[in-house]
Structures are given as structure tokens and as C-alpha cells.
Amino acid sequence: VGAGQGRPGDAGAIFFLTDYGQLDELAGVVRAVLARLAPGAPVVDLTHDIAPFDVRAGALALERAAPHLGPGVVLGVVDPGVGTSRRAVALAVGAGRGGPAFLVGPDNGLLVRAADALGGVRGAVALSPVPGEGHATFDGRDVFAPAAAALWRGEELAGLGAPVAPGDLVRLEEPRLAAIDGGVEAEVLWVDRFGNVQLAATAEDGRAAGLEPGGGLALFAGSASWTARFVRAFGDLASPTAASRPELGVLVDANGRLAVVCAQRSAATVLAVQPGEMVQVVRAERATP
Amino acid sequence: VGAGQGRPGDAGAIFFLTDYGQLDELAGVVRAVLARLAPGAPVVDLTHDIAPFDVRAGALALERAAPHLGPGVVLGVVDPGVGTSRRAVALAVGAGRGGPAFLVGPDNGLLVRAADALGGVRGAVALSPVPGEGHATFDGRDVFAPAAAALWRGEELAGLGAPVAPGDLVRLEEPRLAAIDGGVEAEVLWVDRFGNVQLAATAEDGRAAGLEPGGGLALFAGSASWTARFVRAFGDLASPTAASRPELGVLVDANGRLAVVCAQRSAATVLAVQPGEMVQVVRAERATP
Amino acid sequence: VGAGQGRPGDAGAIFFLTDYGQLDELAGVVRAVLARLAPGAPVVDLTHDIAPFDVRAGALALERAAPHLGPGVVLGVVDPGVGTSRRAVALAVGAGRGGPAFLVGPDNGLLVRAADALGGVRGAVALSPVPGEGHATFDGRDVFAPAAAALWRGEELAGLGAPVAPGDLVRLEEPRLAAIDGGVEAEVLWVDRFGNVQLAATAEDGRAAGLEPGGGLALFAGSASWTARFVRAFGDLASPTAASRPELGVLVDANGRLAVVCAQRSAATVLAVQPGEMVQVVRAERATP
Known about the structure:
3 copies of one chain form a homotrimer.
Chain A: E1 13-18, H1 26-37, E2 43-47, H2 55-65, E3 72-77, E4 88-93, E5 102-106, H3 112-117, E6 121-127, H4 139-153, E7 161-163, E8 177-180, E9 183-191, E10 197-202, H5 203-208, E11 216-221, E12 224-230, E13 248-252, E14 257-262, H6 267-271, E15 278-283
Parallel strand pairs in A: 1-2, 1-3, 3-5, 12-13
Antiparallel strand pairs in A: 4-5, 4-6, 6-7, 8-9, 9-10, 9-15, 10-14, 11-12, 11-15, 13-14
Helix pairs in contact in A: 1-4
């Protein structure tokens, strides 16, 4: 946001997500490259602790963040295929809604869910290889950050590489979700730091299955089952005490999805589930014991 | 601090502390909200690794940081009561000393110790609920960040909600500290990354009990005791070698409190203590073996 | 980079590396001091998770980052000798290449390898003690950050302390590296988050020993040995499957050094090596089984 350099004040930020972790200087070196090539650009670290190579987890995190991002460029790098023939891409998304205009990263499904949340892919290019570089192990530094910086500076997408048809971009499988008798069966998308278990089902999916705040529920995962309540907020659940087991709840979380939660305890530990596993949420009166 | 947008150059920074951890994008999404609602605001991450729900640890970290902060707004979120009837608050503190003018967060004791260190609470409001939001699980994103951004932009505190009497704010219990024969008994406030054990006793508390640099000490915790020396710096302690056990010291730490330390070793491991436990520091000649 | 305050837009950034970790607010307090004393300075966090007191790991991380940094000041703090007679220093390095002009930190070898990568030490001063401070346990906050901020603001190096002859600066031992029959023996410099094992040998060291992409290799570490291939990129290695063991490779990494790698697996786990240990890389036809 400097005066007399970089972009005018409305260029927004560069939103940065990777699986680089924080033990090494990898994310830091990319930040330095951005500071050099896009001086004045605010860099907003979303997270760098996506599990190594977990493209799906990165894609879901970007999708959750997308509605809250202001103008700018998304730089996402979770890239098990670095140094293979996978494409490096930059995507233009629907503008006019105040969010980011571009996403940059590998063409492995990392970016497309967020792009859809930002209005859909309007254009895409395969980033041209960097001339003269002998190695191909740190594309975040050598390929993606320079492209993100160029877009932030106002360069044209078309100048960064050859066009790619949006329909040719790699997409991840949709999260698994099914209506079942008296409720929904849904994939666990995310377990957050607090142990809240986000499911693929949205509030609307829940309503369609007759799941509404106030109702008693049964939860099934693996060969086990639990009772729970559909609540509006953490505060509706009994706080754990020495004498009582923690109470499980289901609520509509901050991303509009159903989540299994537990006041001040990890619901993921109670259920012993992790992302990719299935959970059934059923109205109590329909649960066959 | 851009030209032609946001606040003038003297608006300072937004100082940001949470228990969100860094594995998820939670802190990152809040940073994105700040970048959108307070464009140009430098966001200074204090830490996001306060233990989940540990309001006391967060309050002590903010208190330690407070004297070193420049102008701006403190945004603190350690909030086990999110979605309950606990208030969300913004506090105005004594200005004129170059530090932050406002603190924003839950009314659970997180902010008040830092506010006291910044000149005391001069005014407070209960933040008005966000209209139209159906969920109440991510107030950092939906309530606290927008309020912090508004204050950074120069909006009036009174416009953010109904006044709260400073005396009605929730306060944490004071750390435990007592004079004992020949020394002090003090609660462990903090164990830092290096294993240094900060006690509730200040340098002045130590002097009042006859504890001064140069003296021999005895330390008691649980049923164990150790000898130690009151030193001025880590460098006064013998470095550990293969042949020698590490030497324990007590010094006045960078926050003006007594701390039990060990050169290049964790004193917390030697003493096997953690925050909330009590340690006695006694002049060696007064320690009854 | 604000208008009307701080330095003009070309002052660059402050690049910040420590072993403070992220659990505490230590790095955050230093960031706050920088925001206060160098308002408008972009602070680029390189990493704060250097292992506690591991000066060598910090020095190598700074050296790896150095070629990618733009203008500004490097602030590095890995300082087991805080509070001893070790000097605090600021170094001026060869400018005219667009990188940082100064490095600030303890005189324990942390900075000199990076300074060499930035054109060599052209001048150095021992930072004057901070008057009136009673403690000496947090020099990052009290000594190094103020000096880095002063240099970023444009103050003269000579004003910060007494000159030190560059030849008198503390230097770490050179990494161990030797030509052996049919290859090289090299110290492990770094194991990154993904388990890639960076060796002290550069691509040129490899070529001098007849190690070139395409060749079959034998690796020796401790009493074990493995076969490997010299490849150009991760994508040249077979991806692991349930039925196959992961394939080991050696490639020229993003810092121009030989690294032992494994597609989507940790080569460090396969080899069971860590920094400071030795690995032999030998052409397969020269390896005596």
C-alpha cells in the first residue's frame, strides 16, 4: 500500500496458504519473494500447516476462507506433484463482489473449490516454465509467487501463459453425502484445533432431512453410536464437570455446515473420527437402537 | 498505513492474540477480515498458540506484551464461552502514553490485566450483536474483528454498543503470592519455550523479602528442593557439561518478575512444575534442611 | 512503507528469524517493537522455529534464504549466550545487488554465512549496551530490534556502536565435505518438513565427483546402505504404492545442493539421519557391495 510504488491502494492483498509448515524457512522465503516482487502488497497468511501433500485439506480450507477474503490474489501451494508434468495455473474468478480476482497454484484441485465459491473460473492459463532454472523442487518460490506478484501488480493473466479451458482443470471428488432414513450420512471434512467435527452436510441438507435445532439426535460412526442434541451454539451444551460426561451437540457451524461439537472438549476424540470418515446424524425418534 | 485510504499514518497497528492455533485457517481468516475492513492496518500477530480455552494464559501474555505495544488496537480472543451469554466488549484505556487506545474481546478476564497495564479502563461497551447472523461460533471473525477494525478506522467507541461500567467487567483471580520466612512463595505464571519458569513475584517483592542478586537460594516445589543462585543473567550460570548437572538460577526476567532459569536447559523440567503450581524461593541461610 | 512517515518506499523489509518458537508471545513482542520503532516497515517472518539454541541451524536457514531477500535489514536471534559477554553486532554487507544491506544479531556465527552470501561483510559494529536496563534476558526485544529498526529508518551503522574488524567476528565450522572414491561424503545440513535430506555437497561438488543426473547411486549412512537414482525432480521417482517400497533419489535441490529425497515420503526417515550426520553418495558401479 505504499505511495509512489507498487499498485494503487485498491490492489488488495495476497492470501497465502501452503503445506510448508513453519519449522523451516520455506514459507518465509516465499514471503520475501512477494515482498521483493510486489512491494507494498499486504501478505495475509491463511495457514501453512496443511498436512504435507493433503491437497483435499488445503482445498477445503481455501473454500472455507474464500467468502471472507477481500480483493487481491490467492496463492495456494499444496503440491505433491512438483517436478512432474502437472500444470502450474493461474485462474481468474468472478469479480464484482469484492473478493480476490485471481488464484495461483498447482492444477491438482487445490484451487477450484475456492474459485467456485468466488464466482467460478472465468479464465485460466498454464504458467510458462521459468527460463534458465535447473531445478524444479520449489515452485512456490520460483513459479507461483512470481505469478501471484505479477497479477497483484496488475499484469494481464493472458501474459502469464497459454490458455487452459476451465473444464480441463483438475477437480477433486465431491465430498460424500447421502440422505438416509431419518437423517443424513456425511463425510467428515475437517477436525479443527478444538476438535469440532465439520461434516459435508450443510444446514440446508440438514433441514431437508428433518434435522432442526432443538431436536434429539443419534450419531453413528463405525460400529458405535451416541446421543446428541441439535443446538444453536456451544453455550446450549452442558459444560463438562468431574461428575458428568461431556454432552455432544450438532450445530450449524461458522461455514454453514453441520458440525459435531462438545463444550470445551474435543468431539473428534469422543467420536474417534478423522477427515474422510463417515458419520450418520439421525433424528432420535428414527434411530433404531 | 497507505496513502489515500484507511486511517492516517498514526493509527498504529492491530495486535492480535488468540488460542486458534496455526493448524487451521482460523487466525488467517480473521487476518483477512481485518485486511478487508481496515485496509492498510498493520496486523501484528502476538501469538495464536495460547492453550485452547486458557483465558488466564492469554491474559498474562497480553499483560506481558502491553508495555511494548505502540499505538493501535488489541484484538484478543480466548473464548470458551462463545455462544453463551458472556458479553463481547471493547475497552478504552488510558492514552497519552503511546500505547494502544483500545482492546477488543470477550468479557471473561482476558483483557483487563493488559488494560490495567495500559493505564486502566476508561470506558467500555458491550458490542452489539451482529444482525442477521444465524450462528455464533466464530465471534473472532464475525464480532471482534469488525469491532477492532472499526476502532482502528477511527470510529467512536460509543457507537459500537451499550456502555458497561468498568467495575462490572469480569476479572480473573490475582496470582497467588505470599511472603514466607526468608523469602516468597509464588505461583508459576508462565513456562516459556526455553523452560524458564516465571513466578508471580516481582523484583520488588523479592527485595522486600531480602532476595537480591548474589545470594544463595533454596527452592521448594511439591516435596522436593533444590539449591540455586540469584544471578543477573543467564551468563552467570555454569553452562551444562557432560560431567555436571545444570545449575539453577533465579533472576529478574524481561518482565520484571522473578524467574527460575537454567543455562541452555529447561528449568521447568528440572523443577517439574507448570503454570498454576507454587514455588518457594528462600535465602539459603534461612532454608531449614 | 507509509507516506509521510518512516523511510521512503525503497527501504525494503525487515527479515526476521529466531528460535523463539510460536507458543509464546516472544516473537510477537519483537514484531510490536519493530512496528513502534520502524512504523511502516514490512516485517517478513522467515521462521521462528529454529530449534532452541541451534545457532548452526539458524545460520544455515539464513544462508539459504539470503539470495531471495530484497532490500532491507535481516534480524536474526538464536542466542544461547544472551546475558554473557558475547557481542551484539550489526553488519553491513555488499550492496548494489538488491538484497539486504544490514544484518543484526548476536556475534556467535548466526549471521556470517548469510552475510557472505550477500556479498561479504563490509563493516561491523558491536552494539552499545542499552542504558538503564536492569535485565539482560531478552536482547531480541531490547537490543537487536531497536538496532534493526534504526538501520531500517536510515540511521548510520557507525552510530550504533564501536567498530569491529570483520575478521574478528565469530564463525562456525565449515560443513564437513570430502571427495571419496566414486563420489562424495557430506554432512547432512538440513532435514526439511517433508523429510528431504540436504547435504553439504553442491551440484558442482557432485559433478566433480562424477555424480550426474541419470546415474545409479549407492548411499551409505552409519552401517546401512541403499540404492538410489540421481534424478532431476521428484516426478522422476516412482510414487509409493501399497505394494512397493518408496524409491530413493538424489537431486539438486532448490538451494543448489545435493539432497536425498523420496516421492511423497520422508527420505530422512528411510535413512534415519539427522543434521550433523554424514552420508556417502557413490556411483553405483563404484560401490563395493
